[in-house]
């Protein structure tokens, strides 16, 4: 069944001031058999991976480097890899939290048509989710931009550390996407390994700003949306178009959309239901006890928004 031939469902816009509780979210999840789940950075913050945006949807920090800068300027590339070498130690060691485990459990119960994530940390797969589209790629893989060779990020990390012993002991604050703050450093002597096969430029296999999401991934996600009867957004402000587009398509087709997100989302006016709770606590509560050790319930009276 395609999106176009669905009967138009009654659509309720979000009205600020009204309260949506977690039980409302539970009813939403329980009353739809095949969810298209869309996740973002808010899903991974409790795994120690920082978020890009604040509760108002604005940048907390300068936007990440774009594709052309990376490809055209060796010094900027060195800066990227230096920051990434430091950031990877924590990023590569991040473990899934109750939000990832909860969504994996939802899939095991046969309720997930497809999970599409904007995150590049691979934590949904680590938690056991199988039907996953990594919209923006995976940071644990590195690709040669010339010959396409795909390498394990861990192996490249070893080479980076071998080439740059002086940078070894540096500490820096973690930043999103395995990045780290290393402002004010001279990156001209930072060694970046070339592709071992052809000598080409190695780039993390993630979609940089200024790059397009590969068409096959877009199509795979759209096909998942066609199999779904509702959309559940978890921990995304939907400010990036590559994720927002699916909510837009869903809303236009009359599919109900619920969002679990602490801040404003770009699609607030399209939501059937919005719950402003931390993803980890909410998913732990939603999927019941025993999800993982130490999972806690939600603060029932926390400030919640929305439902008409
Ligand atoms: Zn190559």
Automatic annotation (TrEMBL):
An example of a Pfam family matching this protein is SIR2
Keywords assigned: Cytoplasm, Metal-binding, NAD, Transferase, Zinc
The reaction(s) this protein catalyses: N(6)-acetyl-L-lysyl-[protein] + NAD(+) + H2O = 2''-O-acetyl-ADP-D-ribose + nicotinamide + L-lysyl-[protein]
Q: Does the keyword Zinc apply?
A: yes
Q: Report the cofactors.
A: Zn(2+)
> How does the cofactor bind to this protein, according to its record?
Binds 1 zinc ion per subunit.
Residues binding NAD(+) are 118-121, 235-237, 261-263, 279
Its domain of life?
Bacteria
Active site residues of this protein: 136
Cite the binding residues for Zn(2+).
Answer: 144, 147, 195, 198
Protein name listed in UniProt: NAD-dependent protein deacetylase
Q: Which organism is it from?
A: Candidimonas humi
């Amino acid at each position: 069944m395609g999106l176009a031939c669905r009967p138009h469902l009654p659509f309720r816009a979000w009205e600020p001031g009204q309260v949506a509780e977690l039980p409302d979210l539970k009813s939403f999840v329980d009353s739809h058999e095949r969810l298209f789940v869309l996740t973002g950075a808010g899903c991974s913050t409790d795994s120690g991976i920082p978020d890009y945006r604040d509760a108002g949807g604005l940048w907390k920090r300068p936007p990440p480097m774009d594709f052309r800068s990376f490809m055209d300027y060796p010094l900027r590339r060195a800066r990227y890899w230096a920051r990434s070498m430091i950031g990877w130690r924590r990023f590569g060691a991040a473990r899934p939290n109750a939000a990832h485990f909860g969504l994996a459990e939802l899939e095991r119960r046969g309720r997930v048509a497809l999970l599409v994530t904007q995150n590049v940390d691979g934590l949904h797969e680590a938690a056991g989710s199988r039907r996953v589209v990594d919209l923006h790629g995976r940071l644990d893989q590195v690709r040669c931009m010339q010959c396409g060779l795909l390498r394990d990020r861990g192996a490249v990390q070893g080479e980076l550390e071998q080439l740059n012993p002086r940078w070894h002991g540096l500490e820096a604050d973690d930043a999103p996407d395995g990045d780290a703050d290393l402002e004010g450093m001279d990156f001209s002597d930072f060694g970046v390994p070339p592709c071992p096969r052809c000598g080409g430029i190695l780039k993390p296999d993630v979609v940089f700003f200024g790059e397009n999401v590969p068409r096959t991934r877009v199509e795979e996600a759209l096909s998942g949306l066609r199999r779904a009867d509702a959309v559940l957004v978890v921990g995304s402000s939907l400010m990036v178009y590559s994720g927002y587009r699916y909510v837009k398509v869903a809303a236009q087709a009359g599919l109900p959309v619920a969002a679990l997100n602490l801040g404003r989302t770009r699609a607030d006016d399209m939501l059937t239901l919005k719950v402003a709770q931390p993803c980890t606590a909410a998913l732990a509560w939603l999927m019941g006890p025993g999800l993982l050790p130490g999972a806690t319930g939600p603060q029932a009276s926390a400030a919640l928004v929305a439902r008409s």
